[in-house]
Structures are given as structure tokens and as C-alpha cells.
Amino acid sequence: MNTVSGTEAESEPGPLGKVQPRQLIVTVYGLYARDTDGWMSVASLIQLLADLGVEGPTVRSSVSRLKRAGLLEAESVSGAAGYRISSETERILRDGDPRIFAARRATVDEGWVLVVFSVPESERAKRHTLRTQLTRLGFGSVSAGVWIAPGHVHEEAEDMLARHGLRSYADLFRADYLSVAGDKDKAGDKDKKDDGSGDLPAKVRSWWDTVRLQQLYVEFLAVHRPVAERIASGGPVTDREAFATYIRVLTDWRRLVYLDPGVARELLPAEWSGTEASELFDELHARLAGPARRHVDRVRAG
User: What is residue 193's DSSP assignment?
Assistant: First the structure.
């Protein structure tokens, strides 16, 4: 299973269901270009984006921006103009696939990974890269130079630091959360056994914007559940319609999973809609991926 993840397109603002053309292009390339060594012709891309309501000049302009950002590289194959995914984009795609299709939610007892870093003011670009990459991995900010994530991402963090030449600026720690001094006194029960949890859900809310993420999951359900209900009730869906729907669903979903740190369910708001949204995505993926690919194959075959 393929998708594009972790690129500049993820962080663009805007409501779900109303995305920028280059975000759609990123999804199309991530899903279908890797099957042909990362290359797709301009003609095929323009036709596919037309199915999404994007006009040709807009496609060309968006592709040019992705090229300038280093995500795509111009290349002609057998006389046909097109673009190939850059090697760095290919790596990002590969690393991001599990998060899109098999995101892991932590357990309370697995602990945390901390990144403690200090980057000189003279190297602001490296500081920006570090913060951007930590965010992409699901880290939240405890303080200016201390970031935290569920323990299972420690290997990804190690790899990221080494790959970007940032290892000398940061230290990684595995940690357990212990309630802060005075928690029991504040609770008015000094004799109560301390289970070490303290007010961890409140801490999680300060490290990540779970309220906003909950709102986005509710929005995802509102935007995409109607089509799932129509399909489930036997409503006809052509391969072209399946493609257009699937690309928009996946583009929205990609944005959400890169905002979700994957912390344990017990630490999230009681009204959490992330689980329901994940089930909806899985349902739509199962119903739409096959017909969508048939449509793309026909377009690319000319």
C-alpha cells in the first residue's frame, strides 16, 4: 500500500475536504507513481486531476512548485514529458506508509521517548528542521528544548536525527511518567496509593492539541461518512467516482494521522472520535481502492 506522507503538503491549512491541488498531486503520486519507478506523465496527471476538478494550468503550476521544493524531478520517458518522485520523497513515502494504513496507538505502560536538544541561534535552519521532523514523528513540546512522544517511536527518532545530521544537537531518553511532587497533597488524600499516573491526561492536553484534533476527526466523519453510507446502501459508484472520492479521503486522512501522536486511548478526551474515524477510513479504503486503481490504469494506458 502506498501513499505520500511527511511532505510540506501535510502542514498546509484549510478545512478537510477542501485541499490544495498540490496536496492531491502528492496523493496521486504516492499511490500510483511508485508502481512505475516513481514516474508519471504530465498528460496522465492532468487527466486524473481533471477528475478531481482541477484544471490543467493549475496542475502545471502546482507541479512546478513541487519540483522547486525537491519533491518531483522532471524527466521524459519514451518521448513523453513527465515527473519522477525524488529519492528523498521516495524515502518519505516508504516511511509514512505504516502510519497511514496501520497507525499504532500506544499503551499506557510502554513509556515515553524524550528528545532534549539545543541548537545555536546561528544554526536556525537546523533548529527548524529538527522541530519539523519531530512534529512529523508525532512529538509534542514539553518546553522549548524538550519534546515527548510515545515510546515506540524511539527508533524512528534515532534514524531521523542521524539522517538529517542532527545527532550532535540532541539527546534521546526513554522515560516513565511519575506524578509530580505534591500531586497527592493536592488531591487531599496523602494516604492514597500513588499509581504514578498523576494528571497525565491533562499533561497530554498541554503537549498536544487534542481538542483541535478531536474537532478534525469529527469533521472527517461529517465530510466522508455520507459517501460510505451511500455505498453501503448499494448506491452505484463508477471507477472514476471511486478514484475521485478515494483521493480526497486519503488526502484528508494523511493530514490527520500526522497530527495524531498516537498516545494511549486512556489519555485522550472521553468523547474521542479518532477510533470511529479510523474505522471509516478503513471501510472506504476497502471499498474504493480497487476501483480507483482500475480507473488510473485505464488513464495511464491511454
Answer: P
Which single residue is written with the C-alpha cell 512529538?
A: 139
Does residue 20 contact residue 58 with C-beta atoms inside 8 Å? no
Contact status, residue 104 vs residue 19, Cβ threshold 8 Å: no
Place of cell 542532527: 166
What residues pair up with 148 in beta bridges, in sequence order? 114, 140
pLDDT on residue 198: 54
Residues 42, 295: Cα–Cα separation, whole Å: 17
For residue 8, what pLDDT is reported?
46
Q: In what order do the strands lie in the sheet with 146-150?
A: 140-143, 146-150, 112-117, 170-175
pLDDT of 179 over the 80 cut: no
Helix axis angle for 239-257 and 210-232, nearest 10°, is 160
Task: Specify the DSSP class assigned to residue 192.
Answer: S
Residue 12 has pLDDT above 70, yes or no: no
CA distance 40 to 75: 9
3-state secondary structure of 199: coil
- In this structure, the number of other CB atoms found within 10 A of the CB of residue 300 comes to 18
Angle between helical axes of 274-301 and 239-257 (0-180°, round to 10): 130
Triad 48, 295, 97: Cα angle to 5°: 80
Give the DSSP H/E element, type plus range, for residue 36: none
- pLDDT tens for each residue of 184-221: 444 444 444 344 445 899 999 999 999 999 999 999 99
Task: Collect all residues with Cβ–Cβ distance below 8 Å to 68 and sequence separation of at least 6.
Answer: none
DSSP secondary structure string for all residues of 219-278: HHHHHHHHHHHHHHTT----HHHHHHHHHHHHHHHHHHHTT-----GGGS-TT--HHHHH
Separation CA 195–CA 177 (nearest Å)? 10
Is the sign of the CA dihedral 120, 126, 128, 131 positive or negative?
A: negative
